[in-house]
Amino acid sequence: MPTTLLQSNLPGLELIHRGKVRDVYALSGHRLLIVATDRLSAFDVVLPDPIPGKGEMLTQISNFWFGKTAHIVPNHLLHTPLEEVLPAGTDISLYRKRAVVTKRLKPVPVEAIARGYLIGSGWKDYQATGSLCGIRLPAGLRQAQQLPEPIFTPSTKAAVGDHDENVSFDAVIAAVGKDLAEQVRDATLAIYKWAAAYAAERGIIIADTKFEFGTDEDGKLYVMDEMLTPDSSRFWPADEYQVGISPPSYDKQFVRDYLETLDWNKKAPGPRVPAEVIAGTSAKYAEALQRLAGITLE
């Protein structure tokens, strides 16, 4: 059965970051221990109720994609057994499927987003300006329409509680330099195109996705954090897709839709989530894991 973990507790290890979903600990040898909890954030607010097994599913699907795309861009994963790094007495069953040991990299301060379809904040920006992150798009596009070519639409990395903002490629160049900006853009689009083709063969459209990148002490670029998960991507069932509407999806849109029915200002603290919405969200994640990676929860 999947485990449930709202917050990790690993005495003796240095906690260096507790994010919306992941708890990150420092390890010796320039390594990190990353634990994916079952916390759920929506509208950049961490909700009070966990989604049981979510962290396990996110970790398994990320590891699957890291393995599948290592020929395109190297990733941060190390294959160190957890038994070697977890404190003595830790219940390893809680962490086995949700924790990984990784290289400790210098994060590139950009949310690297690839979009193949016009949806979400991209659709809103297009409606307002006809452009997206400084890229002029054809006139007359409709909601959820496939773009002529996938595009790189970066955003700023916001602190917990703040909202990311779409920025131009020139802004990325100003932040990290032309060479690294081009590497991040090219890697983002290469991974997205490969993964989108892979998913399409399994009846899933990857509308858009977000990557995190980091560099090592030699300046080599790696993809890191999570990869092509329901938290960082929009997955649409191809057989239910149609232009002009926001398609159903294998992600936390299920929770977002519920929250939109509430009188909530989208600021912390977040509202409680009913058991049926939690169960429905968990089922969406599990179906994505099974359809994309062939992994079924035990």
Class per helix and strand makeup: alpha+beta
Alpha plus pi helix count: 7
- What are the segments in which pLDDT stays under 50 over at least 5 consecutive residues? none
What is the rounded distance between the termini? 6 Å
The overall pLDDT, averaged over residues, is 93
List the helices and strands in order: EEEEEHEHEEEHEEEHHEEEHH
How many strands in all? Answer: 15
Main sheet overview? 6 strands, antiparallel
What is the 3D shape? globular
Radius of gyration: 19 Å
Chain-wise SSE layout:
Elements: E1 14-18, E2 22-27, E3 31-36, E4 41-42, E5 45-46, H1 54-69, E6 77-78, H2 92-95, E7 99-103, E8 106-107, E9 112-117, H3 120-129, E10 131-132, E11 135-136, E12 146-152, H4 169-176, H5 178-200, E13 204-215, E14 221-224, E15 233-237, H6 253-260, H7 275-293
Antiparallel strand pairs: 1-2, 2-3, 3-7, 4-5, 6-7, 8-13, 9-12, 9-13, 10-11, 13-14, 13-15
Helix pairs in contact: 1-7, 4-5, 6-7
Give me a quick take on this structure.
The chain is an alpha+beta fold. The protein has helices spanning about 55-70, 90-95, 120-130, 170-175, 180-200, 255-260, 275-295, and strands at about 15-20, 20-25, 30-35, 40, 45, 75-80, 100-105, 105, 110-115, 130, 135, 145-150, 205-215, 220-225, 235. It contains seven helices and 15 strands.
